[in-house]
Every structure is written in structure tokens, then in C-alpha cells.
Design brief:
Elements lengths: L1 H5 L2 E4 L9 E5 L6 H9 L6 E6 H4 L3 H10 L2 E4 L5 H18 L2 E4 L17 H8 L4 E7 L1 H4 L12 E5 L15 H21 L4 H7 L4
Parallel strand pairs: 1-7, 2-5, 2-6, 3-4, 3-5
Antiparallel strand pairs: 6-7
Helix pairs in contact: 6-8
């Protein structure tokens, strides 16, 4: 009902979501983003999990008992050590193997305060490469107007989700690069894909300026 009447949802590119386990990465401007991605995917919420900050999703009793189970949140520390990171990766693999579904990851690491896409964290490349699953880029538009950071009550308004072609980042040739370089390159490729999804539907004049042709 929320994405039908209150915030009508438009979806494009759903055909790019694979039948096998996958990683879903998008821009992040609102707490509405995860529900929008899950709804737009057309999959059962039970087959999708969200990688979320442990200090937010599990330290607050209200969030821990209401939001975390609904979103199948897999906790990750904001500054993970090697042991906690290994445990998080193991939990992600178990979920993907058991459900055959998808894992939502926001490469920016947190919600954008102004709706503009921030630089991606290099840690996102670790999951893109080490999990070894297709990575589906997505771009969400409209959620920042509906529920920006710092606001509690959502406004009514349209939302759109655009999925891009899945990227086989773990299978690309990375000759001569260290594992850190591979992860960095994966993040750069993912950022390009998501930015292209954001530009595809912008006015022609704006796209020309972005590419230095204006």
C-alpha cells in the first residue's frame, strides 16, 4: 500500500536481477531505500538481507526488535576488525546459500545528507569480490524528498528504482594487481555503473555538462 498509493513506485530494469544469489548495490539517501529496493526487486522480503551498521540496527531496542528482523539485517561494524569482518562475510555467505536470494549493500556507507551520491567506501569492493556473486547496480530516486536524514515522518511522493545489468566483478581479469587493487577497481566499476543509471534520465543539457561538453 505504501508504494502503491502513498509513494507510488516506478521500476525499470528488473529483468537484470539474476536467479542466482546476488549483491545489490545502490545510492543511499533515506531509510526508505531498503524497502524500496526490496519491493522493486519483486522478490520475497525473506530472500533479501540488508548489510547494516551494528551500532544502529542492534543497539537500539526498538530498531532491533522491529526493523532488523523484517529486513534480515546482517550486522557489520563501522570500523570492522579482521575477525568481525570474517564473521560478517561468513554470515552473508550462509544467507545467500540458504535462500538463493540477494544481499543489499550501500557502498557509500551511510545516508547522504543532501541527496547527492557520496564517494564509495573501498570496503564495498571486498564484498563485491570476496562473495563471488553477480553485483546488480541500482539507482533510487525520490526517497530523499520523502524521508531525508533527520526526519521521522515520511512525506508522500513518487519513487523510482532503476536496475542496471549485473556485473561479474569477481570474475574480471585483474592481472598484476594485489587483492586491495582488485577491490578498489571493483568499487570504481560499480560507482561508474550507478552514476550512469542516475544520468540516463537527466536532461540532455545536464548530461552534456557532466561529460564536459556543455
Amino acid at each position: 500500500m505504501f508504494f502503491t498509493c502513498y509513494c507510488p513506485l516506478t521500476v525499470e530494469g528488473r529483468c537484470h536481477i539474476p536467479d542466482e544469489p546476488f549483491l545489490l548495490c545502490s545510492n543511499h539517501t533515506s531509510h526508505v531505500d531498503s524497502a524500496a529496493l526490496m519491493t522493486a526487486s519483486g522478490r520475497s522480503f525473506h530472500s533479501l538481507a540488508l548489510l547494516g551498521a551494528s551500532d544502529y540496527f542492534f543497539q537500539s531496542r526498538r530498531v532491533r526488535w522491529s526493523v532488523s528482523p523484517l529486513m534480515n539485517v546482517i550486522p557489520i561494524e563501522r570500523r570492522p576488525g579482521s575477525k568481525s569482518l570474517a564473521a560478517c562475510l561468513a554470515a552473508c555467505r550462509r544467507f545467500l546459500e540458504q535462500t538463493g536470494g540477494g544481499l543489499i549493500l550501500y557502498p557509500e556507507g551511510t545516508r547522504s545528507p543532501d541527496g547527492e551520491m557520496r564517494a564509495f567506501k573501498t570496503g564495498a569492493g571486498l564484498f563485491a569480490v570476496d562473495l563471488g556473486v553477480p553485483v546488480v547496480p541500482a539507482y533510487i530516486e525520490g526517497t530523499h524528498r520523502i524521508l531525508p536524514k533527520g526526519q521521522c515522518v515520511p512525506r508522500s511522493g513518487p519513487v523510482s528504482v532503476r536496475f542496471g545489468e549485473a556485473l561479474a566483478l569477481a570474475k574480471l581479469p585483474w592481472s598484476g594487481e594485489s587483492i586491495r587493487d582488485r577491490r578498489r577497481s571493483a568499487v570504481e566499476a560499480l560507482a561508474r555503473s550507478i552514476r550512469l543509471l542516475s544520468l540516463r534520465y537527466q536532461p540532455r543539457e545536464f548530461v552534456a555538462e557532466v561529460h564536459g561538453k556543455g
